[in-house]
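Table 4 source record.
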Amino acid sequence: MKKILAATLAFISIAAMAQVKPGVEVLRDRGFEGLKGKRVGLITNPTGVDNKLKSTIDILHEADGVELVGLYAPEHGVRGDVHAGDHVDNAVDPATGVTVYSIYGKSRKPSPEMLKDVDVLVYDIQDIGCRSFTFISTMGLAMEACAELGKEFMVLDRPNPVGGNKVEGNVVEDSCYSFVSQFPIPYLYGLTPGELALYLNDSGLIGDKKVDLTVVPMEGWTRDMPFSETGMPWVLPSPHIPNPEAALLYPVSGILGELNYMSIGVGYTMPFKLFCASWVDAEEFSKRMNALNLPGMMFRPIHIKPFYSFGKGENLQGVEVFITDKEAAPLSLTNFYIMQELAAMYPDKAAFKEGNADAGRFNMFDKVTGSKEIRSRFSKNHKVADIIDYWNKDAENFKATTKKYHLYK
């Protein structure tokens, strides 16, 4: 009994410390305005919780006057019990008895049959602010489905852990649209889920019709606020994003990770924080990376033996990444600086030289970068100078265009 009481007090303490209220708490404080008397569907996963770690599923299921009639499972499932990339099956949620419809299987867009009993579809997922993370694609396709069927759509807003000012990368080009690049936005887009929903809806990016959209904003969040200052509990949105630091590191190494070229820490204890291979000299590599004087970044030599994934059981070495100033750091370009320096050190190991990177992954690399032009330009000389202007060409315009959708200062 004492242990249960201590755990309860710990949860209360977490909630009391929180500086930011997520949208679901604001919705509850407002008496579930917009949902009362309506049949509600919910797109969520384990990150959809209040500051006491109570699931949005359970909050809406228990709310007076709210009828929760359907749950919609994105990648990993509504309760987080499906491995990354695996199809999610239809099921029944054992805790509530509510039907779970898969929108990460044969279909990634809710069908009319799935939504026939729904008046309003609610979205509550903690995202990581990067275009290739699939939850925003799920959100956009669900908005499109609701627009087509005349259903309402509500976003319960959450922080962007990369921040609300960080915009990097070219917008997606026509040849590279996919579930990891669903919309013409930069790789890092500097918006919360609610702000992005407003932009997509107003810009005609979810089809010919606009959806009847409501965004329930957070309270207490600012655009420059690190997730660590929100006081909110971090629930991993996918297995390799165990903490907010991993969310910040995902754009640092995730692009290179598509090539199956070296370990980026997935399979070790530091996902997205490392660049290691059996043929790398850690000390020399670290010196070269630090000599670039990349703003807001430092590197140190490291030796690892991955437990799974790339290099399992092998002795690898390389660098560990430290971000000292996320606003100044060229997060996504770090992928290319790494490949540049390795190509200079080991010309025979250059990433895009035949036989090194997995050529079967080039198409996915292009989809993640949003352009075939990036690989085409970089692979000629393995120089960041050849792509930097192209990579950055859309950032400022996107910032200016989306500023009117900002809900937070």
